[in-house]
Amino acid sequence: MVGIPTAAPRYVPDMARLPDADLVVHARMGDEKAIRVLVQRHNRRLFRSARAIVRDDTEAEDIVQATYVHAFTHLNAFRDEAQLSTWLTRIALNEALGRIRRRQRNVGLEEVDMTAESGRGALLQFPTPFSVDDPEAEFSRAEARRLLERAVDRLPDEFRVIFVLRDVEGMSTEEAASYLDIKPATAKTRLHRARKMMRIAIEKQLVGAFSSLFPFDGARCVAMADRVVERLRITR
Length: 236
Hints:
globular
């Protein structure tokens, strides 16, 4: 008796395990699973980068969403030899900087005077270090994160952005400088000033907490993927 041939089961890749390059191939074909994985994979960096410029959670989320919609509707413009994270971050930074420039057309981050006489370089004064017996030293992780976020928000614009890109996101000086269209030497100077402003509050007391700054995960991360997919359905 001859058996009836059956179709081989179709191979469905585990999207979460695929590298960005492979996910981009699927995304170009409109695969929503691939899009969702890419969105959730890059949400935090884009959110942090945008928020470093606009200093507002809601607007930063709006910028991230706009970044994804632009990126996924222009995937043919993405060169596969480049890193997707680099391309997405540039789009997010350009969107954020564009909003700032539209509000303050005469001010650009690359044009801010770095001299002490400008007044922008004045050091922020933080409390003296906590003693071992000081109950304040027992802050919970969440409280410590909020303290760090407030300290970062207080930095002048040009210092805050380089600080977030370098010390929060872990970019190299050259990479951060290229994103901001400034010279590496200028980036180093700004980073030094930013670290000096934050030294007592961060370097001596909260070292290691940078990784939890401005979290963008859980339901918030999934919701961004839902909104991006919905927008893409409308624009197609």
